[in-house]
Amino acid sequence: MKTPYYSFDWGNSHFAVLNSDVGNAAISAGAKETFWAEQTSWLEEDLKKSQKATFRFVMAHHPPFTAVANRQDQNPKMAALTPMFEKYKVTAGFFGHDHNYQHYLKNGVHYVITGGGGAPLYKWRSRTRRLP
User: Cα separation of 69 and 35, whole Å?
Assistant: First the structure.
């Protein structure tokens, strides 16, 4: 069975694609946790091997953080990956889920939310707290 996460190289860039939809990755809570642990381990090894690439990108549906007030703190598993992104010098992460455009630069990593497809754009809401 193929895994729902993968990576590829294009020119001098490396791309890692994650399945952040853990809720639908398995039936039981234990299987979901196993899936996430395996994917996270794979990602770390993949990023470690890609250090010769000039650029490293990570893509997933769910962002690690957001300015949308009612969605903050909804993705703790993705948020927990940000130290790994920094450690392995990820150039940028591209995410969806929130139907608007957001861009953050945190500790050298660009985080871009490009959730403009599939539904009307969300109205901008003021942040309830400072983003990490």
Answer: 29
Residue 83 has pLDDT above 90, yes or no: yes
Compute the distance between CA of residue 60 and CA of residue 19 in angstroms, rounded to an integer.
6
- Whole-number Å distance between alpha carbons of 18 and 42: 10
Q: Under CATH, which number does the domain 6-114 receive?
A: 3.30.750.180
Contact 62, 98 (CB under 8 A): no
pTM, to two decimals: 0.86
Q: How many residues does the chain have?
A: 132
Tokens of 31: 């299987």
Amino acid at position 81, single letter: L
Domain assignments of the chain as residue spans, ordered by start: 6-114
Smallest CA-to-CA distance from 46 within 31, 37, 56 is with 56
CA torsion 52-65-2-84 (nearest 10°) is 40
